[in-house]
Design brief:
Layout (H helix, E strand, L loop, with lengths): L2 E6 L2 H14 L5 E6 L3 H14 L11 E7 L5 H11 L9 E6 L4
Parallel strand pairs: 1-2, 1-3, 3-4
Amino acid sequence: MLCIGLIVEGIYDEAALTEFLRKSVAPDVRVICRPCGNAIQLMKKFPAFLEEFRHAKNGAAVDKAFVVRDADHKNPAELIARMEARIANRVYHFPRKLLVAVEEL
C-alpha cells in the first residue's frame, strides 16, 4: 500500500488534503499527517517530522512526503526557499515536495 507523509498547518488542512490525496492517488492510500498548529510552528517542526517519516511506514520510509503551508500574503518562492534552506544538508530516501498554498479567487 502506498504511504504518504503529510505535514500541514492545522486540522482543517489535514482533513482537506488527506481527502484530496485519497481522491487523487488511491482510496486506500495511507496518509500519515502531522498538523503543526500554524505557519510559524510548521516552519519549526517540519524538519523533525520529515526525519520521523524515514521510519513511519512500519520501520521503513514513506513513499513520498508533502509539506504544505499557506502563503499568508507572502512571496511563495521566498517561503519555499526558506523551507529548502532548513533542510538543505539532509538527504531523504523518499521524494519530498514543499508547497505553498496561495489564496486566489
